Amino acid sequence: MSAPVLGFDLTRLDGGAAAADVLLRALTVTADDLPAIAAAQPDEWSRVGHWLDVDSAARTRRRVSATATSATSASGPASPGLRSAESEATGATREGDASQGPRPARAEASADLAATLAALERAPIGTVDGLTHLVRHDIFDWTWRRHPGGLSQIKPADKAAAVVCDAAAAAYLWEMLPDATRRELTAPWLTAISGLPQRAVDLGPQATAVDALVERVAGMSPQLVRKLGAASGKARPALADWAQAVHSASWSVFVAGRVRASAAAQLMLVQAVENAGVPVADRASGVWNLLSGAVQALVVRDVLDGPTLYRLLDPVVSVLGPVVVPRRPVD
To answer: How far apart are the C-alpha atoms of 302 and 306, rounded to whole Å?
Structure first.
C-alpha cells in the first residue's frame, strides 16, 4: 500500500491519527530499541483473545464497506456529487413537508442515503492484514536478512514488530473494538516508548519545506478549511491530469530513495488534517488528495520537473499561500 493511499484511509478513520502516531514513532525505532519494545510484549496466549476481537472487527468493517459500496453502485456510478445527491434528497423532503405535510418514506430514504454515504466516506481501501504487513516488511524492513534458505528477521525484531502491530491495529479499528481490547493491545507499546528517547522523523533533504506545509495545514482556520474544500471541488474536472502528476511524483520518490521520508510526511499530514478539524466528508471528496499530492511533491521538489511540481502545489498554495523556504540540493 502506498503512503498516500494509507494516509487516505487513516485520515477518514476515527483512530486514524492515533494509528499515524504509532507508525511515525515506529519509523524512528533503531536496533538498540528492539529489546525494550520486545520485552513489553505479553505472552502469545494473552494476545490470542484480543486478535479474535481484531479479526471480528475487521470482518465487520469489510462487510459494512461492501454494503455501502453495493448500495451506491445500485443507485448509479459513484461520483464526487454524492454529497450533492444527499442535499437534494434532504431538500426534497423538506419541500414535501412544507407543501403536503410529512413524507415519512422520503425522509427515511434521505436518512438511508446519508447513512450509506457516511459509511462509504469512511470505507478504507486497505485492510488490517495490509497494515500489519506494512509494519513488519516496510517499517521494519531493515530487520530482515537474506539467507540461502530465504529471509529471516533478526531477534528480537519479530516480537518488537508484534507490539507495534498490536497498537496499530487497535487504532485502525478504534471504534469497532471493545474498549478493554483496545487498551490492552495498546498498553505494551505505550509502556515501551515511555522509556525510549524521542527522535525526529527523517523527512529527507526537503524536510524544511515539508514541515512548513504540514504546520500550515495543522493551523488552518475554519475559513481556510472551507476555502480548501471549495478548491478541491474546482480541481475535480482535471482529475486525470492531477492523477498523472501524482504518479510522476511517486515515481520520483521511489527513484530518489525517499520512500520512508514520503511515508513519514503523509503520516504527519494525517495528524495535521485531524488537528485542523477538516470534515471527513471534505477529506473523502478531495481535500486529502490535494494536500497529499502537495506533500508528495515537496518531498522530491529538488528532483521533480517544474510542471508537475506546479500542478500539485498550485491548488494548495492558492489557498494557504506559498511555502517560502530555500531549495536544498540533492544528497
So the answer is: 10
